[in-house]
Design goal:
Chain lengths: 318, 318
């Protein structure tokens, strides 16, 4: 009998969430462990195995599992290694896919979280049936997964698709966590939106609901709540953020001529407040040939499931 | 017996050059016709057939020909059509690959000239053995051919790889022929270099050999000749041009993580005067992960052969 399930693992710096997924994209069992609790990778693997076998046993045991896919910070699809991940407890190179295979006795494959999100969207989400699209994840950082001809682009060394670190502002750009200046991530990540909010609020005398909040702790949720009330400064913050994104999207289209660009993550909760300026800037900057032709979409996967689903999608390919 | 030859056609707005190519990348016979002389596509096809059969017969006749590849302005690989090419005599959509196949009785495939250049480099040139690289053609315009996993990227509609029309200068950029402002092509094409020369010469009082020339007709060859003499303004013109290119190359690397970026065309004749600033700007702007790792190369195909070779490379895939 065909093995009916795959495992998806979404490893973050704080939590590792995992689940058993069926072919229709339902997460039929799930659990998690704390990533930071295991200073040694072997301790982490043991804990992951113990917790995961509970949910695997609940669906019929390891013989029902086709394979394991994991979305991992700095995960390299080609080598299966985690390579010098600054936000994980384990330094240097960790042969993560091999460790999973050895421990569970099923094939395993890893990639980074944005590529996993792209796989998830293609397998179960808004990109079903698409062969060429770009996934942009808007969270703590700005990640991307690029799909060309039905395959995620990994490039020569496995690290392709770092669109959050292309340049949005060439001169006097903001410092980015990567060490560069002016990266898209410094403007369109959660922190980027907060920085834009702070800049705009402190350089205008305009009345705004946001001025009542602690300026150092404004979130895109706060900005959204104010925008819903018709707050002009809040709307301007989304317009500015959206303009940076849309301008870069026009460049991305010139690269791979995607059918769609799909946005995922916290910022997409702002709905039309962010979609409208992104679309306007994208259409204003794209080559005439593509005007009005490239779809701009939000992910339609449930946010709580998306990362596990995306990782699991890798395992169907094994 | 295996058919030993392919035909490569390089169609430009003025001339159409074509040749018979063997498997080792030698152009063993060549000829040309004037593109502009044929207001009707059928007249053009007839003339092409007549001239081409002479060289085909000189190598053993049509039965020695495996197929025809053509590099064509606005040529679409997927459809085989030339679509709304502003610089060709034939308006609208021309089913060029089909017309070739019907006339010659062998399979034919087309693409645009920059993609053809990438194919040529991969088949016969500096990218032999590479599966991931980006070809940048620096001529009248700035073109690009992107290779991922050993295949040219065409994208959803066949027009991927328009890197000359990504934005080099976001605000107050120069108008570009495409209707946008600030495109890389407006800075790194032949015209772009001339415009930079004009700008720099007219905004400095510094002594320069270039001031003796007609400022409206300075070419990159003139700038090169002056740079060789140690002319500081000429060197600054190449530095400026190289900086725009290198800055954008850093963004391109973040997209597809290529093993190499390969430059082709007139501007590469400036040698180190252009290579050095490109490399410096690329290294200064690329993510730390890729610093010192991506090769920057000039094409090693003879310029007179490259376009025909590139087009012919398409035909080996038929």
């Amino acid at each position: 009998m065909e093995k009916p399930y795959v495992i998806g693992i979404d490893m973050g710096g704080t939590n590792t969430v995992f689940g058993v997924v069926d072919a229709r994209g339902h997460v039929i069992a799930r659990s998690s462990i704390k990533t930071q609790q295991y200073p040694e990778i072997n301790g982490y693997i043991d804990a992951l195995h113990e917790e995961m076998m509970k949910i695997i046993d609940s669906v019929g045991g390891i013989e029902t599992i086709r394979g394991i896919g994991a979305g991992v910070p700095d995960g390299n699809y080609y080598t299966g290694n985690i390579e010098f991940a600054p936000n994980l407890p384990w330094k240097g190179v960790v042969p993560f896919a091999q460790l999973l295979t050895d421990k569970f006795g099923v094939p395993a494959s890893i990639t980074n979280d944005a590529n996993a999100a792209a796989m998830g969207e293609m397998t179960y989400g808004a990109a079903r049936g698409m062969k060429n699209f770009i996934m942009i994840t808007l969270g703590t950082g700005v990640g991307s997964g690029i799909v060309i001809d039905g395959k995620v682009v990994y490039g020569h060394d496995g690290f392709a698709g770092e669109l959050g670190h292309t340049t949005a502002v060439r001169h006097n750009g903001r410092p980015c966590g990567c060490g560069k200046y002016g990266c898209l991530e410094a403007y369109a990540s959660a922190t980027g939106v907060a920085r834009t909010a702070k800049e705009i609020i402190s350089t205008t005398t305009q009345d705004t609901l946001l001025r009542k909040l602690d300026i150092d702790n404004i979130t895109s949720k706060d900005v959204y709540d104010a925008a819903v009330e018709g707050d002009k400064v809040a709307i301007e913050i989304f317009n500015t953020t959206g303009r940076y994104l849309g301008e870069k999207f026009a460049d991305f289209i010139a690269f791979s001529a995607p059918e769609a660009i799909i946005m995922f993550g916290g910022l997409t909760k702002a709905g039309d407040f962010i979609m409208k300026p992104v679309r306007e800037a994208m259409e204003a900057n794209v080559l005439p040939h593509w005007k009005g032709k490239v779809k701009l979409l939000f992910s339609d996967l449930k946010e709580s499931d998306a990362a596990v689903l995306g990782a699991s999608a890798l395992a169907w390919e094994l």
